[in-house]
Amino acid sequence: MAQTLETLARRTTSMQGIRSMVHTMKTLSVINSAPYEHAARAIEAYHDTVLEGLHAFLSQSGPIHTETPGAGARVMVVFGSDHGLCGNYNEALAGHVGRHINADAGRATTVLCVGAQMADALADLGLRVKRTFFPPASVDGIGRLANLLTQKLDDIRRDSHPHDVAVSLAYFARGEGGTQAAEIAALLPLDPALIAELQAKPWVSRSLPYFSMPRGDLFMSLIRGYLFASLFRASAEALVTENAARLALMQQAEQSVDEQLEELKSETRALRQSEITTELLDVIIGFEALKKDKRSKTATSQKQETKGTPLRSSSAS
């Protein structure tokens, strides 16, 4: 269908509006990533403090033994997104979680989910979500979410007593070269390699650590701190990768919109040039027609004047 300049102008205006929205979303993704990345780095200091407390505990209480739970509950905490405009973020992570759970289908798994869209993606794969939590809307909400998840895990642990609970976290993590990859990190029981490292690590201070709390209460308090720090870090990391995925998608969308705008501008220039050429041809044709009509009228007038003039006869000598 032939397009007019008015149609192309409307399409160009609409595309410019889309580009403005895409550019705004890209800017917001860059702005939002900074505080989440700062939070992910900041929680590392708290995480190291918890590990140092566990080191002090082990240096005074003696070795502890961790066993892989057999009949205990298996809990998977999945960090998704509810903000949209980040591609197949939820679907890709849900597929990775589904393959991991189906690989050990003999054990029941309790799934805790962050984000309603992630819950829907898991439900599409036939995975039942026990509880869905709202994702944090800002950096301040990460601590709230980590507290809620820690309390829920405590409830599950009490319900499964005397058996242990195996807890894993599923989220997108940053890789080398700005890449992203779905990661499933085992959280509980504690990694035997980590316990062995802390037990073998010498206490460098001349002041020996001392605690007055009951040994079991102190150990559970350290485990809760370890859970909180790990959940906080996973949530912050998931938010960083989510905004990075949204940024990449918006960059692709912006490039696509720019290409379409360039095509519209090219079509507009070509159509305007065609209309100008047509108008010039109309002027030239009209001018030639007027010249031809004028020449015709001049010739007719000359013929009429010739017919109306009497012939002169020469006088006899």
Describe this protein's structure:
- It is a single chain.
- With 317 residues, the chain is of the alpha/beta class.
- The protein contains 6 helices and 5 strands; from the N terminus they run H-E-H-E-H-E-H-E-E-H-H.
- The protein has helices spanning 5-61, 89-102, 116-124, 140-159, 192-200, 215-308, and strands at 73-79, 109-114, 129-133, 165-174, 180-188.
- Strand 2, helix 3 and strand 3 form a beta-alpha-beta unit.
- The model is unreliable at 313-317 (pLDDT under 50).
Set down the secondary structure blueprint.
Layout: H1 5-61, E1 73-79, H2 89-102, E2 109-114, H3 116-124, E3 129-133, H4 140-159, E4 165-174, E5 180-188, H5 192-200, H6 215-308
Parallel strand pairs: 1-2, 1-4, 2-3
Antiparallel strand pairs: 4-5
Structural class: alpha/beta
N- and C-termini, Cα separation: 85 Å
Rounded to the nearest angstrom, the radius of gyration is: 39 Å
Return the string of H and E elements: HEHEHEHEEHH
Overall mean pLDDT stands at 83
- The gross shape turns out to be rod-shaped
Uncertain runs with pLDDT below 50, 5 residues or more? 313-317
Strand content: 5-15%
Major sheet: arrangement of strands: 3-2-1-4-5
Q: State the helicity in percent bands.
A: 55-70%
Number of strand segments: 5
Largest sheet: 5 strands, mixed
Oligomer: single chain
Number of distinct helices? 6
